[in-house]
Specification:
Blueprint lengths: L1 E5 L5 H4 E5 L9 E10 L2 H8 L16 E9 L11 E4 L14 E5 L3 E3 L6 H4 L4 H11 L17 H7 L1
Antiparallel strand pairs: 1-2, 3-4, 3-6, 4-5, 5-7
Helix pairs in contact: 4-5
């Protein structure tokens, strides 16, 4: 499969490699998603820049946690009716080195959420970390109906979605 990865830390032009990597195997409880769009978050930039110095100890890293695509396979015990389903995904790199900057990602089925037909894959790829963080920030202490909520930093993605 085509993928982008890094084997050293630094600027994208100095570290990102685009080429072929083995297609991941789908494990029990996982789905295989053919990625249509991947999302880039600040944590992805920080990882590539070296904020997590032990990240490369086990080898290369295919970055990115969020994305959107179509389920092409399900692992053992999975729901085969999900094959062909449009989904947005989050935490693709949770506990692993291989994220969504690739044609395919195998991910825990619970981290693949149905993406309604009118919603584009580009929008779907933005629904992971930014939208979930905004939702938690706004609603962690309960309903805000009838309350005044101050959102600072509304120019960033999390702030943008919190304002919504």
């Amino acid at each position: 499969m085509k993928a982008a990865w890094f084997e050293s830390f630094g600027a994208p032009k100095d570290t990102l490699i685009i080429g072929e990597q083995p297609t991941p195997l789908v494990g029990p409880g996982e789905v295989m998603v053919r990625i249509k769009t991947t999302g880039v978050n600040p944590s992805d930039v920080k990882k590539r820049a070296g904020s997590f110095p032990n990240l490369l100890d086990a080898g290369l890293v295919i970055p990115h946690s969020d994305g959107a695509g179509i389920i092409e396979a399900v692992g053992e015990g999975g729901d085969s009716s999900r094959i062909g389903e449009r989904v947005w995904i989050y935490q693709a790199q949770f506990g692993r080195r291989f994220g969504s900057a690739a044609e395919y990602v195998a991910i825990d089925a619970s981290r693949s959420v149905p993406l309604p037909e009118p919603v584009s894959f580009e929008v779907g790829a933005c629904l992971g970390i930014p939208v979930m963080t905004a939702h938690r920030a706004v609603f962690a202490d309960g309903d805000v109906k009838g309350k005044t909520v101050l959102v600072t930093g509304g120019a960033g993605r999390v702030g943008y979605y919190a304002i919504q």
